[in-house]
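job 3f2a | input accepted
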Amino acid sequence: MNGTQVFDSKNELDIKVNEAKLYDDGRSDDKSVEPEGIAIGKVGKTNVAFVGMERVDAVAMYDTNDPQNPKFLQIVKTGDAPEGVLFIPAKASPTKKSLLIVSSEEDGVVKIYTPKTI
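job 3f2a | predicted structure (118 res):
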């Protein structure tokens, strides 16, 4: 890896958040969705990027098997202002299923998600 940019999402997160009707923060027009954290992991055979977005209290998920052409999968509503995003692969998980752990700064909640399938 040499730090070369392979993809620019432009305003796709804004579009997806608007489609999901998740914009409820009066400051979002200043800072957009404000991605705070990202985690990369493999769920089954799919490489997934998890993008925590502080202003919309959600995590977006992208299939990154083709890093130059990521595919949007879904948005999951989380606690207030997600700051930390951590992926634990199934082989390291106590449940033997992949886990996504999201910590939120405003409400102090930690949520754990496990995917069904991708």
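job 3f2a | The chain has a mean pLDDT of 89.
job 3f2a | closed
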